[in-house]
Amino acid sequence: MTETTPPKRHRLEKSSYLPIPQFLEYGWSHVINVRNESDEQCFKWSILAALHPVEGKLAEEVSSYERFQDELKFSDLEFPIKLQDIPRFEQQNDISVNVFSYIKAKTAFGRQFYETSPVHLSQLNNKRPIDLLYVYEERNFHYCWIKDLSKWLNKKDVCCRYCLNTFQENDIEEHTRLCKPHGPQRVNIPYPEKNILNHNAKDTKVQCIIYADFECFLEPVEVENKEMLENEKTVINIHKPSGFAYKVVSTKAELNTDIQVYSGEDAAKKFIDELLELENSIKKKLNLKNKIDMIPVVFHNLSRYDSHIIIQEFQKLKDEDIECLPLNVQEFISFSISSLRFIDSYRFLNKSLPSLVASLVDSSKSCCQSS
């Protein structure tokens, strides 16, 4: 987190009406931009727009607020009101004013965008603060009234004015109490050319990986009476493995295999037997001796489905220990048996296999067309 102030080139000297920039168009409906084209008092008109809301197009007309302008005090203050003048205005009028602006930022992939950032936050504990948008262009700047900060930022929950993170209604007060002492903040997202640590030299290269999947059929279970059928916890079917498929992908060409498919009796036992044989073969050919030299075995939706089949079958092998990283009593994030580490690709690609296959790019078709 870093404190936020307007860039020096935007500490401007003149104020006049400015339209809201197009890149902020997503929030136009939640901002009132009073058209003060003949004066430099946009700050005053924005405050009055918040104190005396007007519906429709008249909300942007100065004439809608002229009769209320004597309500505000501007002793020893000159228009245009600069950011550093706002605390004095707040003290004179007992009104909390927060000001937000926008700065250029970059995504992790280097794409430029504009993000909202607080540039002035009130120190008064007013229950109904007024939020303003600070718009700038060349040497002009302009204030607008933000009707609803959370909606303007396209947030569903309540937005903290200090860090712009969102919280539920019953949590925002406690968060604000802890966040306020740090002042205005924004998150700096690192991008490729800057602030990203590179630990590639410490990476452990995987020399071999196994992709696998089970198929099962439902074997009905006899239920004693109809009343038990109405109970949601009554087991009515058992998922019995009917087949499997796997493929080995390795940096060593001789270990690569085509997709191996089996369908028949004792599919789970057959899979474990073949997997253990594969493990021994891979360890010998790749000279895997250290414990860190793991062989990943990837299943899609392993945690919720295939893991139950595999672990139940491995439990029959008394000489094999199972090391688990559990999510709860029924699901495992991953588990290891000997040199085999079972992981769930659904945790990285949370779509069904048909959806993932449908999203693959056809290599026979070009993504670009040449003229």
From TrEMBL:
Superkingdom of origin? Eukaryota
SUPFAM superfamilies per record? Ribonuclease H-like (SSF53098)
Stored PANTHER family: PROTEIN CBG23764 (PTHR31511), RHO TERMINATION FACTOR N-TERMINAL DOMAIN-CONTAINING PROTEIN (PTHR31511:SF12)
- This one is known as Uncharacterized protein LOC106055485
Lineage of the species this protein comes from: Eukaryota, Metazoa, Spiralia, Lophotrochozoa, Mollusca
